[in-house]
UniProtKB/TrEMBL annotation:
Protein's organism: Trichoderma asperellum (strain ATCC 204424 / CBS 433.97 / NBRC 101777)
Entry-linked SMART domains: GAL4
Keyword Transcription set for record: yes
Organism taxonomic ancestry: Eukaryota, Fungi, Dikarya, Ascomycota, Pezizomycotina
GO cellular component labels: nucleus
Protein name: Zn(2)-C6 fungal-type domain-containing protein
PANTHER family for the chain: ZN(II)2CYS6 TRANSCRIPTION FACTOR (EUROFUNG), ZN(II)2CYS6 TRANSCRIPTION FACTOR (EUROFUNG)-RELATED
Residue span, Zn(2)-C6 fungal-type domain: 17-47
Length: 492
């Protein structure tokens, strides 16, 4: 096939034309087209592709060098954002918004949110109370508002919220919608965009994978949250109450998103304390989330500023206590794995940690009672530390056995409420499942030590509750299987 034929196939209506003389072409010995004038004067033809519909002057004025496309410009913006932040801040200062073309199957999964908002109500009544990193008021006014222009980042967030709010599909958590959203998040990463709404969608995906025990995806997604949040500079919202360029409400939402990531980073390592945390502990002067009630009422401008060094109180709110419990977990693990300066120093450090654990647990339980919350996430997270078999028998030395027993009995009461139907599986968040499982291990250990039939009955009751929760969160069913494995093998 000659060159002219190739040009007609690749770029229709475009034909090669010699820039030297625009004359008709002939062929040289090697089959390449040459115009008659160039052949006569012994010069080489230089061709460009031209459209016959264009005039000669327009062809001659066409630049030969490639023009930078919009995509290339946006890629350059992001390169400067990471390579020279000062230059970026003082020249461009704003990254382009995310623009994606979603598959019809994903849009069909979301549906018409103007008429079908059941999943939104379900999300804010079941998932949101334990991990309130979204501003409900802003979400309603700016994302659900039919007058608001549709944005790709908001569409991704809505999709992950629906995935989290929906009951466990018949095909399991690794359903079609799960993979559609995962692929869309990957496309969002490739689009060179950094937006808070995209990060919040990734956080929601991490909670979904954690609750359904989708590993190692859950662990890797949490790591993705850490890097994405760091790129957005969310750590500044924790250190400074007023962020330049953000309102108080926006700063609080960024701050809560950062704390949500830290909680996920600590919680994802509960089953294996040997893994290193991806996020370092914040300074003692870091700002905690404001009281949840004030946050829901959108009165954050009047909220008192709480710092991490302050002792826990019921006025702080559940999410603030959850953040403090996550910090406590990091310190417990650090006391376990770092070589002590001296045995006496280590003993005193562990005693302080255990005393803090007891105090924080008591406050979180009281906070739950005060606000009418049956299942309080910080108390269940604290319980996980109190009953686990940490090395050096630290908890055996300082935490009273009666304290462990009281909390284990509290988890048993919760298990009974779940199996009886007084507490539905929707009320249980993924952050509570680990503590419920550890209570079963506690009762199993006590049965192995004493041979008491009541301890075995309590262990079986907790296992039954986990199977009920498994209808909502698949991870709970896996925990129930691990109880059987521990009992059979004697690893208690």
């Amino acid at each position: 096939m000659d060159t002219a034929s190739e040009s007609r196939i690749i770029i229709p209506r475009l034909k090669p034309s010699c820039t030297q003389c625009q004359r008709s072409k002939k062929r040289c010995d090697r089959g390449k087209p040459r115009c008659s004038a160039c052949m006569r004067y012994g010069r080489e033809c230089i061709y460009i592709l031209r459209d016959d519909s264009l005039s000669l002057s327009s062809v001659e004025s066409t630049p030969v060098s490639p023009v930078k496309t919009t995509q290339e410009s946006e890629e350059s913006f992001h390169a400067v954002f990471f390579l020279d932040s000062v230059l970026f801040r003082r020249s461009m200062n704003r990254l382009p918004e995310l623009e994606l073309s979603f598959q019809d199957s994903l849009l069909n999964y979301i549906g018409d949110i103007t008429s079908d908002r059941d999943f939104v109500h379900s999300y804010f009544s079941t998932i949101h109370p334990s991990m309130p990193f979204l501003s409900k008021k802003k979400f309603t006014e700016r994302i659900l508002n039919p007058l608001s222009p549709p944005r790709s980042a908001s569409t991704l967030l809505i999709a992950t919220m629906k995935l989290l709010a929906d009951q466990l599909p018949e095909q399991g958590p690794r359903c079609k919608a799960y993979y559609l959203i995962k692929n869309s998040l990957l496309e969002a990463e490739s689009s060179c965009s950094l937006e808070l709404r995209v990060l919040q969608a990734i956080i929601s995906m991490a909670i979904f994978e954690l609750g359904h025990a989708i590993y190692p995806a859950a662990y890797l997604t949490v790591g993705y949250c850490v890097r994405y949040g760091s790129a957005l500079g969310l750590h500044k919202a924790v250190e400074h109450y007023y962020e330049e360029g953000f309102s108080i409400t926006e700063s609080e939402e960024r701050r809560r998103s950062w704390w949500a990531i830290l909680v996920l980073d600590r919680f994802i390592n509960l089953g294996c304390a040997d893994r290193a945390f991806l996020m370092t502990d914040p300074s003692s002067n870091s700002i905690l989330p404001i009281d949840d009630a004030i946050w829901e009422e959108n009165r954050e401008i009047n909220a008192p500023v709480r710092r991490l060094f302050e002792p826990p109180t019921t006025a702080m709110g559940r999410f603030s206590l959850t953040a403090q419990s996550a910090i406590l977990l990091g310190r417990v693990f650090r006391s376990i794995h770092e070589p002590p300066f001296s045995e006496a120093f280590w003993q005193n450090d562990v005693k302080v940690l255990d005393s803090t654990l007891v105090a924080l647990t008591s406050v979180s339980i009281e906070e739950g009672r005060f606000r009418g919350i049956g299942v309080c996430s910080p108390s269940t997270i604290c319980y996980r530390y109190a009953v686990d078999e940490f090395p050096f028998a630290a908890t055996e030395t300082f935490i009273p056995q009666d304290f462990k027993r009281d909390i284990a009995n509290g988890m048993l009461q919760l298990a009974d409420a779940i199996t009886s139907g007084d507490c539905t599986a929707d009320e249980i968040t993924p952050f509570c499942i680990e503590a419920i499982y550890r209570s079963a291990v506690f009762f199993g250990r006590e049965h192995s030590r004493t041979g008491s039939l009541s301890e075995a009955t309590s262990c079986a009751a907790v296992k039954e509750a986990l199977n009920v929760i498994g209808k909502r969160w698949k991870g709970a069913s896996l925990y129930a299987q691990m109880i059987d494995a521990r009992v059979v093998t004697g690893i208690l």
